[in-house]
Amino acid sequence: MYVKDSREDFYYVSAAAMFNDPRIQPLMGMAYKTFRKHKYGSEEPYENDYVIVKRGVILGHDKKEGQTE
After folding, report:
1. What is the pLDDT of residues 21-58, one digit of tens each?
2. Exposure b/e, 4-37, CB count within 10 A at least 16 = b
3. What region does 50 belong to: left with phi over 0, alpha with psi -120 to 50, or beta?
4. What is each CA distance from 58 to 11, 12, 40, 48, in whole angstroms?
5. What pLDDT does 24 receive?
6. Residue 40, Cβ neighbours under 10 Å: how many?
7. What Cα–Cα distance (Å) separates residue 30 from each residue in 9, 25, 47, 50, 66?
8. What is the dihedral sign for C-alpha 25, 30, 34, 38?
9. pLDDT at 69 over 70
């Protein structure tokens, strides 16, 4: 999620996590159920006057066989 006025990016593991963030809830302009029902952000980005929400993929480094953390 990109917050337009502060020019900050936030990354969430789910839409539920995004709506649980008290900083973000007022910026969305809708309830979580509405967001999910209309599948905003899944195909095309959701945008309003305050935010842009789009789905992405987080890539990580694959471990080689036998490596531990």
Report:
1. 998 889 998 999 998 888 776 778 999 999 999 988 87
2. eeeeeeeeeeebeebbeeeebeebbeeeeeebee
3. alpha
4. 9, 10, 19, 24
5. 87
6. 20
7. 20, 8, 12, 12, 47
8. negative
9. no
Cα 32 to its chain centre, rounded Å, is: 12
| CA distances (Å), origin 69, targets 3, 13, 19 | 34, 22, 31
pLDDT at 36: 86
Which pTM does this prediction carry? 0.76
